[in-house]
Amino acid sequence: MKKYSNLSSRRRMPDLTTVLSFIVLSLLFISLGSCGYSSKSLLRSNVRSIYVPIFDNNTFRRGYEFDLTKAVRDQILLRTRLSIVDKDEADSILFGKISSVNENAIIEDTRDNLVESRVSIGVDIRWVDKRTGRTIVERKNIKKPTEFIVRRNETLSSASNEAFVRVAQSIVEAMEEDW
After folding, report:
1. Model pLDDT for residues 27-55, shown as the tens digit of each residue
2. 49, 90 in Cβ contact below 8 A?
3. Which residues of 79-105 are buried (b: 16+ CB within 10 A; e: fewer)?
């Protein structure tokens, strides 16, 4: 009978240059494949404070300007390092205008009762550096539709509140990425 020798003793250990080459290539691929994530703020570093006046409202839906302005202020405090201050103390001002509010029926039952609907709020913004008068970011028609289902006791009001938050998040994203 033939004895089998231990196969592991026959394996050769890789030499030091092979190991170093592998490490260098791995680091190269990792650095080339990275997505550029950073913990740095995406806002301009020279802007530290912002004033957000009540948004204008060019629609027939009264009161929406107050709810949207509050949602934008909340998102700025939640997602940025900016402090919200009075107009006289601010480095920048965020002007906004509700340009459209649309409600569309998505599904109706056989008796034309609303089952599911969508509300969409359109907003124009202009963020201005108060010290120089230059526009930092200007965006037209920022929209985020929100659906609501009547049978779940969701209403136009609850959907509008959700739409305010979603539009406010989009506004803060526009402030971060466009400069």
Report:
1. 666 655 555 544 444 555 579 999 999 99
2. yes
3. bbebebeeeeebbbbbbbbbbebeeee
CB 56 within 8 A of CB 16: no
The pTM of this model reads 0.71
Compute the radius of gyration of the chain from its Cα atoms. 27
Distance CA 53, CA 84 (A): 10
Name the residue type at position 145: P
pLDDT digits (tens, 9 = 90+) for 94-151: 999 999 998 887 777 787 777 788 888 999 999 999 999 999 999 999 998 888 777 7
Cβ neighbours around 127 below 10 Å, total: 24
The fraction of the chain above a pLDDT of 90, given in percent, is 47
Q: Give the torsion sign (CA, 108, 64, 178, 32).
A: negative
Residue ranges of domains in the chain, CATH in brackets: 49-177 (3.30.160.150)
